[in-house]
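This week, study the protein below.
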Amino acid sequence: MKLAPLAVISVLAACAQKTPPPPPPPVVVIPPQPQPPMGAPLNMRIPEAADDGTRKTVNSSVSTAQAVWNLRSAYNVAALNCVEPEYAPILAGYKDFLKVHDKSLDKANAELTKNFNGAFGKSGTRERETYQTQVYNFFAVPPVKSTFCNAALALATEIAAVPAGQIEGYAPQGLAKIEAPFMAFFDAYDQYRADLAAWQAKYGGIVVVAPDQARNTTTTARPGPPAVQPQ
């Protein structure tokens, strides 16, 4: 009986030394999820880059005649789509281009007709139209319109200085210049995909808790990850 008071004291001491509750989960502020460049769709198909960084497009490895015609197609798309006042020289330049280089354009057109008919026989016209539709669609990709129009404006000045009969020599470099904004966009889109993959790997499993909820709870819908305050 003499030990009873000591037992009571021990029990009281044990009650007084309860294990403190665990601290709330750390609040992690995550950066915004990466978004596609230039307002592009989330899952857009683009020409894949080879190991050397090059991309195969409708303008890759084409003949001189096809380069002339694709340049004409790009210029045509710009004349139709770049309608803001600052781009007025494009339409005027395109009209002059058709007049100054009419013989070269006729020659290129005839050569391409011959080439497609030789390669596809009776389906030559259909194959060429299908290919040209791809060319027009390539130069009409909406996210690139602004930079494309700027490139076309510069191109209009350059083409105006090309004498009649010499567009064949200029076409490959002119085509590369008008295609450059699209190549830059494809590079930016690839970077976006890489950034998104890294973001998902780091933050994809974190449960986001609204700020008002984070003040009133220390639990999340899934065990393990910390609570997150969206930035």
